[in-house]
Amino acid sequence: MEQKGPVQVERRAWMALAVSTLAALLTVIDISIVNVAFPSIRRDLGATEAGLSWVLSGYSVAVGAFLLLAGRMADKEGRRRLFMIGVAVFIVGSLASGLAPTTGWLIASRVIQGIGGSILSPASLSMVLPEFPHERHSTVIGVWGASAALGAAIGPSFGAVLLDTLSWRWVFLVNVPLGLIILILTPRFVHESRDPEARGRFDLVGVPAGTLGVAFLLLAVVQGGDWGYLSNRTILAAAVGLVFIGVLVYRSMVHPRPLLDLDLFRFRSFWSAAAGQVFFGTAFIAVVLFNTLLLQELWGWSALAAGFGVVPGPALAAILGGPVGSVADRIGHRNLLVVGSLSAAASPLMLLTRVGEQSDYIATMLPASLLLGVGVACSFATFASLGLKEVSPTRYATASATLRTTSQVGFASGVAIAIAVFQAGTSKGFLVAFDRAWAFMAVTFLVGAFFCAIACPPRSKVQAMVASSAT
Predict the structure, then answer these.
(1) Does the residue 395 lie in any domain?
(2) pLDDT tens across 340-390, in order?
(3) What is the count of structural domains for the chain?
(4) Which of 41, 144, 194, 385 has its CA 20 to 30 A from that of 98?
(5) Which residues, 6+ apart, have CB-to-CB distance to 105 below 8 Å?
(6) Is the pTM of this model over 0.90?
(7) What pLDDT digit, counting tens, does each position of 20-57 carry?
(8) What CATH number has the domain bearing residue 451?
(9) Chain centroid to CA 264: how far?
């Protein structure tokens, strides 16, 4: 059997990373691209506001609900195998979405997409980390994380171009050929890896309890704006979710193969990253949404112009992602996270103090977007890198899924809370409503910066922890 040299091994590893980041890019684009298609979907399918809301909510709930199970299965059954299954499911959901004849069909197809995204997501990173030496993991995670920023950058503009030249259906159908390319390349460049100690059946009580618990909590968060946060439906959904989560935690304490690996939370690096990214994700997703609303609703830009107007910040984050990841171990994850959160906080603060009813993109929106881009570059991949720092390679998918679950809670909460704050201020004027939403985002970023400063371990302790875990 022919032995591969170091250059060939290195090239294969980077190709594996490229395949992984392409899949991550695909799922992020799908989230950001759908918003621009809503007017066309409403017109063609006769969708109601509630129906359009579920086009987003169905996807978000499905992604969050199945992450923990997908991570566990990836470590047990094989990360590459689960990744390919997730991509295949995502393709099926995309095709069904693009062909949807009714709103109900589209919602169901989006749920299938979400399930596919939840399966491939934890496996996409965990399957490529074993291809690289441990000292390069921060760089790899930085490059992988930059794909999320790139997806956020090109999603709205790409979607606007598709709408302008084709139809809203191509917002979903474009995923099909890209997904097929990923399925072809994955076996060629990615080795299979799994946890050799992952044997036996999963907890038959904890698995459905955890899946339903996360699903009901996310349902309460994402639908609370439409139902009313004090409505019986929202309170019931949240209560049911909390009961199921309680069952999950109890079963995870007593079952030998629990869905939620509580041992991960013994690592300070893991729990601080998991909690810290909730603050950052909550504020970040709200900024992305309201930047688009600012351009279209307040300044009257077209969807196409607004799509390109929000590109600079995420594009800068994508450019800086790799280099920032490579220096994380040298300057300390905590320092990067504090700087990133403070830079991100400066973005809504600038909008709060400088935005008026007249369009002023160059002096206001552009620098605010670039500040957010720096914050994203310093934060998103750094949270993932810190969270996995002490985790054994055999548990990468499980840990990654748990981190993604907390991140998903932040994303869902950010949109719901920001919209609620905005709507509460509309009685005093559109600009006042924007100001209140930006104040919420800035405060959340600042609280996150303070949390990271006191909770995340300093560089010296991280190095000591990693050395201890290695031995």
Answers:
(1) yes
(2) 999 999 999 999 999 888 888 898 999 999 999 899 888 888 888 888 888
(3) 1
(4) 144
(5) 96
(6) no
(7) 888 877 777 777 677 677 778 888 888 776 677 778 77
(8) 1.20.1250.20
(9) 20
